[in-house]
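Subject: complex prediction, re-run

Hi both,

The earlier run crashed halfway through, so I resubmitted it with identical inputs.
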Amino acid sequence: MDRRTRALYVERAVWPIGRGDRKFWISVMVLGALVAAGVYAWIYQVQHGLWVTGLNQKVSWGFYIINCVFFIGMSYGGAMTSAILRLTGAKWRAPLTRIAEATAVAALLVGAVYPIVDLGRPDRFLYILRYGQVGSPVVWDLVAVTSYAIASFVFLYLPLIPDLPVAKAALGARAGLLGRIYDALSLGWKGRPDQERALARGIGIMAVLIIPLAVSVHSVLAWLFAVTSRAEWHSTIFAPYFVLAAMFSGVAAVIIVVAALRKVYGLGEFIVAKHFRYLSYLLIALGAGYLYFMISEFLTDGYVFESGTTSGLQSLFIGQYAPEFWSFSVGGLLVPLVLAALPGRFPVARATVASVLVVAGMWLKRFLIVVPGMANPIMPWEWGQYQPTWVEITILVGSAAAIPLMLIVFFRFFPVMSVHELDEVEGRYEVSSRHRIPAYAPVYGAGDAGGGDD
Amino acid sequence: MPDPRPLAANDSPTARRDFLLRTVAALVAGAALPLAGLKNVASAAPPAAVAGGPTGPVPTLDISPQAGEDVLIRMQRELARALVKPMDERKWGMVIDTRKCVGCAACTVGCSLENKLPPGVVYRPMTDTEVGTYPNVTRRFIPRPCMQCENPPCVAVCPVGATFKRPDGIVAIDYNACIGCRYCLTACPYQARTFDFGADWTDNAASGRPAALALDGATGYEHLAGFEYGEKWTRAEGVIPQSPVGNARKCTFCAHRLEKGMLPMCATTCIGRATFFGDLNDPTSLVSELAASANATRLKEELGTEPKVFYLL
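This time it finished cleanly. Structure:
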């Protein structure tokens, strides 16, 4: 890579920093208003009690539990994508890792709030710390999510350290107080070889560590359901099923965020069609795995025809929840897989549309796990019904808006593409043998074969 | 002493469960020593209504059933006898004779009034299932109180130990500790737990009090105190609603009535004398006698929860 291309890369990476143009403020205000509406709905719910939601005696877990699983799953994909690309030494990762890691943290923060939103007495939330019962999966969850949250913060922060001087330089004379914050956060980074080595080792450790941590979070979330005696949930496949679902929806979320920020920040010269194709391969592999798990679950359950499972399966295939189930299976799984797998034109647009379908489909899938599992009667009485009210819908919209809000605010202060990472994969530093593996790097700036056709 | 639970043999799920529980306990104890700071509410906080002997009637010495005597009289006498024993030597149980149940739901209503239950919160629903096709058709009534399981799945999953099994076998909820996560609702195989979502009977009704009455008729009822676990619980609305609003709620075998020497409301109010209540640890009690009969069964035996509610078929 020549010096001019690198300069352009840095320029693009720091372009949003300190830029308070009208578009930015309008976005912040619109997203902020949605978040505020969600917060208002939650306060309303706390004041009046949970009966203002659609939750009821039979379906007492609904949107909040679905959203918790959904957003934490989304987070997982971001962390995994970055970790896998680092561990495999994929040279094309440089412009993507920062976005993936930031998405992981933003989605996790949103998902981690949901257990509190779900509580009947949120003022007693800290009782879990004071009186925590080791035997309860809720406590396992708290431990797993907290450790994963710390790890994903560190995983975002470590690669950011060498980029902080870049961010400060971008602000130039305007840095002021912010400049001192950058200095403090960069922990005296000078780019010395010993610092490089320490950082490379730190990031390497985190990339390895984040995988079991993320697996544990989603396994524990699955066990929360699987340790009950309900037919839909009491399944040995649940933990890997949830882990795969999380990765699948998470990679899709990363593709969406990458596509959006590429457009907004004009990163098209560096994030090219090849990136979307590689991410699509990841998406296809995970989606195919998910389909396999689904077939395995439904076949073993359906073949035996046990009463509890049968009524659940019937409700999915031909009954009350059939519209959601087939929307997910076809629109959220098969169609996006085909869309992403087909060769041909518009790789970026196809990957993005497929990812939007996958994310929506995986939300539906979580709905199909939680709600029919609750509504299916375990005593001789009618099926439960669940109709969310404006409270749950507003909170969902508000929390979803919080993710782009956090991202655009974050990238107003920190480079959207990792500059240090680029230097590293381009061989400006020889820090670790791992990075000497020749990889299929796209030629930055020169334009990929399918680079401009989205 | 004859075992009142005919189906609990040594190789039953109970034994396996005990083994598993002990294994897990040993593992956890080893792993959790550094976590010794974690406090166990279940063991730390004494449940209300545990202490103190009976304040009710003096027990009679005559234990034999009298000819033609109403079962309520016999159960009342046996209750008094059980109450003089230490709490951990009693094991409250219930027997419901489905052949006598006429499906009137008087137990459901009596329970709701006794515990001042808000809409949706039902401790003892009566399920009414139609069986067969005309002309061979019948209705099957199954009143369903809390099973007060020996191995309650709801207790294990509680993140804060707000629900626990008392020494007398009643599964209780500490309204001062419950955070309202509703995990116990999903874990209970009998759907015996309901959640107090905070709804009132008078919600969405015309508000304002009629001046002529000078009191708040319907809304006044809503704010009468319930006396579960021997404490006063008013569902008053504050900045945020107060417990038991936002808590899980369940049948307590009317623990607050037992403490005063009274039978549970459902047993008292049953018009068909189809609900029997007493001490399963007392081999001569009516419930021990009925629970040992050949037609006694329990719901979902296969789950190994060991319910203390028996049904006579």
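Chain B has one domain: 71-201+221-312.

- K.
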